[in-house]
């Protein structure tokens, strides 16, 4: 279990994380959402001991990591695998050696490394690519190498920092599917930092959201989305917006991303053609807490809307 208590982190005089407390239970897939610059990567770096922080406590399996000396920290970090948006593979080494690297650094026996590299390559679906160099791989394949490398020391936790943000939709889906499989097969606890809602929707059990340096536990994912179609749950309010021009369309989503406290979900879009004009209907779900802000925005942009009412929807 990872427990973060009253964490405060500054860069110079800028407070990046403000008294953050939360915990992540074993075996879960947890999302940390937030806009760019909100402190997500900083939080992960504090958890894996790469960044020091000014006050607070981080416990990993009841071990307080911020007081560990370098050697103890190195051992603690063995238990935490990391993957990143840009894979950080070594371009001159082949897939085999990239996966083997952490084990080589720890001085593992050659035969053990060989077995482990091959079994990991199988696990991530890259057995036939063991002897090629990273530049011969697609983005998704590179991320698979990075995942295998992150798993090589058999960590209990896998921290993923925007690990699908550079991938197209289909590849993202396949990487998320792999993460879910790893979570189930290896019982590894996964923390995914992302700004992409579809990632959360696909595989996460728990959702945290960072804004203005503070973290909130939104809902458990099963509460957040309806199970069958991943819509926002009862605490989400659904609206239809009727928009006549594209400028308004871009304007509203630009504004929404700035002013809403919580993620929103675009459920579907339709076009209606009538008398030579076409109107775009956007069905959107927002968090109840954001209702007034949302309605004010619609008014200021002069957008026609209808709140979902089961009798007419
Ligand atoms: P996110 O991952 O959510 O995009 P980051 O954790 O990378 O956000 O950054 C949070 C804030 O901290 C940003 O304003 C960023 O500019 C600042 N920051 C990140 N790393 C450093 C650093 N090493 N020195 C100074 N400021 C930093
Ligand atoms: Mg980041």
Structure commentary:
The chain has 313 residues and is of the alpha/beta class. It has three domains: 2-79 and 155-228, 3-Layer(aba) Sandwich (Rossmann fold), CATH 3.40.50.300; 90-153, no CATH class; 237-307, ACT domain (Alpha-Beta Plaits), CATH 3.30.70. 34% of the residues lie in helices and 31% in strands. The chain has helices at residues 40-47, 70-77, 95-105, 110-123, 139-151, 169-186, 197-203, 221-224, 246-259, 291-300; strands spanning 2-11, 14-24, 29-33, 55-60, 63-64, 80-84, 157-161, 189-194, 206-211, 214-220, 236-243, 265-274, 277-287, 304-307. The strands form three sheets. The chain has a six-stranded mixed β-sheet with strand order 6-7-8-3-9-10, sandwiched between helices. A four-stranded antiparallel β-sheet has the order 2-1-4-5, with helices on one face. Strands 12-13-11-14 form a four-stranded antiparallel β-sheet, covered by helices on one side. Helix 5 runs parallel beside helix 6 and helix 9 packs antiparallel against helix 10 (291-300). Bound molecules: adenosine-5'-diphosphate (ADP) and magnesium ion. Adenosine-5'-diphosphate (ADP) is lined by residues 11, 16, 34, 36-42.
Which helices and strands occur, and which strands form pairs?
Layout: E1 2-11, E2 14-24, E3 29-33, H1 40-47, E4 55-60, E5 63-64, H2 70-77, E6 80-84, H3 95-105, H4 110-123, H5 139-151, E7 157-161, H6 169-186, E8 189-194, H7 197-203, E9 206-211, E10 214-220, H8 221-224, E11 236-243, H9 246-259, E12 265-274, E13 277-287, H10 291-300, E14 304-307
Parallel strand pairs: 3-8, 3-9, 6-7, 7-8
Antiparallel strand pairs: 1-2, 1-4, 4-5, 9-10, 11-13, 11-14, 12-13
Helix pairs in contact: 3-4, 3-5, 4-5, 5-6, 9-10
Bound molecules: adenosine-5'-diphosphate and magnesium ion.
């Amino acid at each position: 279990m990872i427990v973060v208590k009253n964490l405060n982190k500054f860069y110079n005089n800028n407070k990046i994380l403000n008294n953050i407390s939360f915990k992540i239970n074993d075996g879960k897939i947890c999302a940390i959402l937030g806009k760019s610059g909100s402190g997500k990567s900083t939080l992960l770096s504090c958890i894996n001991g790469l960044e020091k922080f000014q006050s607070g406590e981080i416990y990993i399996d009841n071990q307080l990591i911020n007081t560990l000396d370098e050697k103890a920290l190195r051992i603690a970090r063995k238990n935490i695998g990391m993957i990143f948006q840009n894979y950080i593979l070594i371009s001159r080494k082949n897939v085999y050696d990239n996966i083997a690297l952490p084990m080589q650094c720890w001085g593992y026996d050659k035969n053990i490394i060989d077995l482990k590299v091959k079994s990991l390559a199988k696990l991530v679906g890259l057995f036939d690519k063991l002897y090629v160099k990273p530049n011969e791989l697609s983005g998704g394949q590179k991320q698979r190498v990075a995942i295998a490398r992150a798993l090589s020391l058999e960590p209990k936790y896998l921290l993923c920092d925007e690990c699908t943000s550079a991938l197209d939709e289909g590849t993202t889906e396949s990487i998320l599917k792999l993460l879910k499989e790893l979570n189930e097969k290896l019982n590894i606890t996964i923390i995914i930092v992302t700004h992409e809602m579809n990632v959360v929707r696909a595989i996460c059990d728990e959702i945290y959201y960072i804004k203005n340096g503070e973290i909130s536990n939104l809902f458990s994912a099963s509460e957040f989305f309806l199970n069958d179609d991943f819509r926002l749950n009862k605490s989400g309010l659904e609206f239809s917006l009727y928009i006549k021009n594209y400028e308004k369309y871009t304007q509203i989503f630009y504004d929404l991303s700035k002013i809403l406290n919580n993620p929103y979900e675009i459920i579907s879009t339709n076009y209606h053609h009538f008398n030579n004009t076409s109107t775009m209907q956007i069905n959107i779900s927002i968090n109840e807490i954001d209702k007034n802000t949302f309605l004010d925005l619609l008014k200021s942009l002069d957008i026609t809307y209808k709140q979902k009412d089961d009798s007419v929807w």
